Amino acid sequence: MTYNVHHCNPPSKPDFIDIPAIVKAIQAQNPDLVALQEIDVNTQRSGAFNQAEEIAKALNMKFFFGKAIDHGGGDYGVAILSKYPLTETTVHRLPTKPETNGEPRVLTTAKVKLPNNTTIRFGSTHLDAQSDSVNRQLQIAEIARIAATEKLPFIIAGDFNASPESGSIKALDQHFTRTCQTCEPTIPVENPTKAIDFIAYTPAKKFKVIKNTVVPEKYASDHLPVVAEIKLSGK
């Protein structure tokens, strides 16, 4: 599952933090792994707690938070939730061109040990939001470089802030296989028009997509969550 949670603030309720709504949305899908974006930790707007930790506790999952920037006296970034043990947790800094004043972005990864004792790498990311972004191209290139050094089957998920026809996603598709090819839109939550949230994997031969679903959860965040059921091949 990938879910941009809008710092757990329902768009219809400004200044209100509703972690139980995010928990309920995730719980309804019962995912093994979740990539979260727009997570607050000890910020003025959200309160003195780690949102990833609170969500993980409620779901009885493991978690790892990856800080991207300082925000409101605390931290802001992405996170991974997992039913299974997480090791080798890493925050990879992604590049931005200084002259663009782009917000710093990260890819957070972890090694995940599955119940059958196989292991994979799982990553959560949130790419640059500027239109026609040169930064997204740089960030995809860095993610591809990281993936090229990876010996484990690798799944990444997140808010790529780019639609399938964009240069950024075309660049992503050169290195990863997305779980949807004709992708349902994920924003806005009311009458969505754009697909920008994706799950993708490499190498292609190691995975088989059973199904990919955009969940019509319209209250909890300004993005719809995406869930993919993926079979891991032993080949």
TrEMBL record:
GO BP terms in the entry: GPI anchor biosynthetic process
GO CC terms: membrane
Keyword RNA-binding: no
Coiled coil: none
Source organism superkingdom: Bacteria
Protein's UniProt keywords contain Protease: no
A single GO molecular function term of this UniProt record: exonuclease activity
All residue ranges annotated as the Endonuclease/exonuclease/phosphatase domain in the record: 1-223
Xref: SUPFAM superfamilies: DNase I-like
Gene3D superfamilies named among the record's database cross-references: Endonuclease/exonuclease/phosphatase (3.60.10.10)
Signal peptide: none
Keyword terms, alphabetized: Endonuclease, Exonuclease, Hydrolase, Nuclease
PANTHER family named in the record: CALCOFLUOR WHITE HYPERSENSITIVE PROTEIN PRECURSOR (PTHR14859), ENDONUCLEASE_EXONUCLEASE_PHOSPHATASE DOMAIN-CONTAINING PROTEIN (PTHR14859:SF15)
Protein name: Endonuclease/exonuclease/phosphatase family protein
